[in-house]
Amino acid sequence: MDLINTLNWRYAVKKYDGQKVPQEKLERILEAIGLTATSAGIQPYRLFVINNDQVRQQLARDSFNTQITEASHLIAFTAFETITKEHISDFITFMAKERELPETALDSYKNSLEQHILARTDHENFIWSSQQAYIALGTGMIAAADAKVDATPMEGFDSEKLDTLLNLREKGLKSVLLLALGYRDAEKDFLAHQKKVRLPLNELVTQID
Ligand SMILES: Cc1cc2nc3c(=O)[nH]c(=O)nc-3n(C[C@H](O)[C@H](O)[C@H](O)COP(=O)(O)O)c2cc1C
User: Fold this and answer.
1) Could you tell me the distance, in angstroms and rounded to a whole number, from the CA of residue 104 to the centre of ligand 1?
2) In this structure, are 12 and 30 located in the same domain?
3) Which atom of ligand 1 has the smallest separation from the CA of 157?
4) Residue 1 reports pLDDT greater than 80
5) Does a structural domain hold residue 56?
6) Stretch 15-24: mean pLDDT, rounded?
7) In the predicted model, is pLDDT for residue 19 greater than 90?
8) Which CA distances in Å does 4 have to 105, 109, 142, 146, 198?
9) pLDDT for 136 beyond 80
10) CATH code (residue 31)
11) Centre of ligand 1 from the C-alpha of residue 103, in Å
């Protein structure tokens, strides 16, 4: 299917039919998310595929999003609470290894990252990391649609509760988003046949000549 048809086919599913997404499709969606561009390339977030029913049930208890338990898979997008000198240094070591460079070749890049990132407050860096996670969410939604897998992006959950359930604090992470994956129940989902509501392009986009 062409990209525009695929994006028109995708919608934020409210009701899933219970079918499981095959493992190879899940892996393809995760691989696509991993290829997302991030600011400076540092990937300041981590994903958790929550297969544990108890965790999903506990999380669903305080949320209007029934997809948390009804979808085939649930992915949590979590961002680093702060970015440390060590994060930057690990990233540089990794890049040098991947590109078969001496680490010293990346000294000026490392200095510039330290100067910019470490000058910000922890809160500013958390917002920045979260913004990168939102881009990854976008990739995940498009990759799911490309694999003919339905999805729901979700901000509607108790992030502090999920942080506790997954022990995220001790990993320096905080949850920011969920992505449910599965297959739509086209009969029971009131949104399945509704027209997509989007601004006309001439209102969304201004051409500066
Ligand atoms: C960041 C983000 C958070 C969202 N949170 C929820 C949510 O908690 N529950 C839900 O059912 N839909 C959620 N949505 C879905 C939006 O309501 C939906 O994408 C929007 O209305 C556009 O409709 P469409 O995606 O079906 O085309 C969210 C979407 C985004 C991008």
Assistant:
1) 45
2) yes
3) 8
4) no
5) yes
6) 98
7) yes
8) 42, 38, 11, 11, 13
9) yes
10) 3.40.109.10
11) 42
Determine the distance separating the centroid of ligand 1 and the alpha carbon of 31, expressed in angstroms. Answer: 22
In contact, 163 and 77? CB cutoff 8 Å: no
To test the pocket of ligand 1, the residue of 8, 155, 193 to mutate (highest count of ligand atoms within 8 Å of its CB) is 155
Q: Bridge partners of 182?
A: 150
Contact assessment for residue 184 and residue 15, using Cβ atoms and an 8 Å cutoff = yes
**Residue 52: both structure tokens together:** 């544990």
* Residue 69, in any domain of the structure: yes
My answer on whether 128 and 199 are in the same domain is: yes
The answer on pLDDT for 27 being more than 90 is yes
- Say yes or no: CB of residue 156 within 6 Å of ligand 1: yes
How far, in Å, from the CA of 180 to the mean position of ligand 1? 11
Question: Which pTM was predicted?
Answer: 0.97
pLDDT digits (tens, 9 = 90+) for 142-163: 999 999 999 999 999 999 999 9
Cα torsion at 142, 148, 154, 157 (round to 10°)?
-140
Using the predicted structure, report yes or no on whether residue 189 has a pLDDT greater than 80.
Answer: yes
Residue 62 in this model has a pLDDT that exceeds 90 = no
Question: For ligand 1, atom 26, which residue shows the shortest CA distance?
Answer: 11
Please indicate, yes or no, whether residues 188 and 111 belong to a single structural domain of this protein. Answer: no
Encoded amino acid at 126, one letter: F
Number of domains in the chain: 2
Between the CA of 167 and the centroid of ligand 1 the distance, in Å, is 26
38 and 13 in a single domain? The answer is yes
* Domain range for 31: 3-83+120-204
How much of the chain, in percent, has pLDDT values that exceed 90? 99
